[in-house]
Amino acid sequence: MKSQVVILLSVLSAVLARCPADWDHYNDKCFFLSRDNETFAGALKLCEVIGAQYGRVASLATVDDAGTQSHLEGLVTKTSSLEYYIGATDIVHEGTWVWVSNGQTATYTNWGPFQPNNRGGAENCAGITYDIPNGFVGHWTDKPCTKELPYICEMPFRQA
């Protein structure tokens, strides 16, 4: 009986540890690239709802190191979209970019040329952009949070 319980727990933890279908695994996170366009707030809410369906906490992607940046760039280049929201915003304090998933200041950044520029005083949400003629090859730009874009969600690879 004990061995059956151990096998059952092992199988159950293996199932829970994997990323869901259509999610991509990198390090300790699972990432999902949406096919739909949403505002920043809408994208954040949808990430939370999607994560809850899997019994996990999900948010817009936190890109906190060059490895994660490179991995997401690789995923984005396989799609037809040229820009995706990620989870950084400076809406609370202009010029201080924080991750919506944890409220931490973004210490790693990958801003494109002349970014962030807060054009028109209304660009407070970050996105990964591919605009090669203007020098954006997976670089970040600040966007109006009301612009509708596809987005990248993340959730933990293993449920805590």
Automatic annotation (TrEMBL):
Cleaved signal peptide residues: 1-17
Lineage: superkingdom: Eukaryota
Residue ranges occupied by any C-type lectin domain in the UniProt entry: 26-154
Keyword terms, alphabetized: Signal
Keyword Signal tagged: yes
UniProt cross-references to SMART domains, sorted A to Z: CLECT
PANTHER family: MANNOSE, PHOSPHOLIPASE, LECTIN RECEPTOR RELATED
Name the record gives this protein: C-type lectin domain-containing protein
Species of origin: Magallana gigas (Pacific oyster)
